[in-house]
Amino acid sequence: MTSCSDAEFREIEALVEVLSSSCRANREIIDEVLAKEDSHLFVARNQEGRIVGMTTVCCFTIPTGRHATIEDVVVLPECQGTGLGRKLVQAALDYLAGTGQSYKVGLTSKPARVAANALYRKMGFMQKETNVYVKSVEQTKLV
Ligand SMILES: CC(C)(COP(=O)(O)OP(=O)(O)OC[C@H]1O[C@@H](n2cnc3c(N)ncnc32)[C@H](O)[C@@H]1OP(=O)(O)O)[C@@H](O)C(=O)NCCC(=O)NCCS
Description:
The chain is α+β, with helices and mostly antiparallel strands and about 140 residues long.
């Protein structure tokens, strides 16, 4: 997906709510995702063209090689269990394979996300023993 109408933004907003009750979609951020060359938003649509699922793949290159992460895989509750989650992850993997480069692809999921963990294992992702750390960095205020 490379551009987003207001209606599509509202559909993405609904999916973000499914992902996290504490997160709200932000138009500026979605536009940034769509504009950036190293992040790619994939969507699943129903027969009416409405967005009912999405995932984002982010690519980065570091001294150990080319890496990609698959982030925020989500399908509307009423459409779950119909194969869309698998298709979204596969679309992200197919995109990477089609770039002509090799990538180490990673993703994370809380243990409580039973469906997601089952999906990733079934798709061949191997669990890695590591600690995940997060920290927010706020913008420096210019005076
Ligand atoms: C995780 C999620 C994206 C999966 O999407 P989905 O469209 O329901 O999944 P699919 O129908 O493609 O199922 C794919 C596989 O996952 C497994 N799976 C799906 N739902 C499952 C469930 N409730 N329990 C156990 N396994 C499940 C199935 O075994 C299935 O394998 P199969 O194709 O061999 O039958 C979806 O459940 C979701 O949006 N969950 C809420 C948000 C979330 O947790 N996102 C992950 C963030 S890391």
